[in-house]
Write a structure and sequence with these properties.
single chain; 181 residues; alpha+beta; eight-stranded mixed beta sheet; 6 helices; globular; binds coenzyme A
Length: 181
């Protein structure tokens, strides 16, 4: 369990499946994620979910995002972990709209980034979001990410953003000094 200021990140569990299915099959969320809406029933989704939970992976780690009082509001994780190049991609979704624009996404990403840099030797974390997703970009900038590349793939136009360990360390020190001043 990883505790942030507004959220707790924990390993996925079977009880998260219904919310995840609801969010995965929500057309607006799928559009924001540049993902197709899966054409699968809940029982099939649940069975795949259960078998995925039984497998451990060294190239990705997925977490549920809960509020501090235990409400499941979204998911995040890191994927495509490349230890040779020292990089990984992160992803996030606050599925419960009641929790948008209230700082939960920013805290979840800040908490995830801190966990990754403390627990691994990775040097660079990156992410991608749609060029049109201004909310996401604003949130990621607040977490210290900066845009470095644009890419058009299929019908989607993406911006890639990155955060290097050194920048993150510098930002953390700066925040600490502001608190002490
Ligand atoms: C993107 C997401 C993770 C951001 O998390 P969040 O908790 O909503 O974001 P935060 O409240 O931490 O920050 C959002 C900021 O964007 C601002 N914002 C909201 N809509 C905006 C818009 N259309 N244009 C510019 N800024 C906007 C908010 O006011 C806030 O800034 P502030 O703190 O200065 O007021 C979350 O909204 C989410 O998952 N949304 C749905 C799925 C999605 O977008 N998926 C793609 C993610 S790559």
């Amino acid at each position: 369990m990883i505790i942030g200021s507004k959220v707790i990140l924990h390993d996925k569990r079977l009880g998260d499946a219904l919310n995840d299915y609801t969010w995965r099959t929500d057309p607006e969320l799928a559009q924001l994620d540049a993902a197709p809406v899966p054409n699968t029933t809940f029982p099939k989704y649940l069975s795949d979910y259960a078998s995925e939970l039984r497998q451990s992976s060294s190239t990705r780690h997925r977490f549920a995002i809960d509020t501090l009082d235990g409400k499941h509001i979204g998911n995040c994780g890191y994927y495509d972990i490349d230890e040779t190049k020292g990089k990984a991609e992160i992803g996030i979704m606050i599925g419960n709209r009641d929790y948008w624009d209230k700082g939960y996404g920013t805290d979840a990403v800040t908490t995830l980034v801190s966990h990754i840099f403390h627990q691994t030797n990775l040097k660079r974390i990156y992410l991608k979001t749609l060029d049109s997703n201004s909310r996401a970009q604003k949130s990621f900038k607040k977490c210290g990410f900066t845009p470095y590349r644009h890419l058009v793939r299929d019908k989607y136009s993406f911006v890639f953003m990155e955060l290097h360990r050194d920048q993150w360390r510098g930002n953390s020190k700066q925040k600490l000094n502001q608190v002490r001043a």
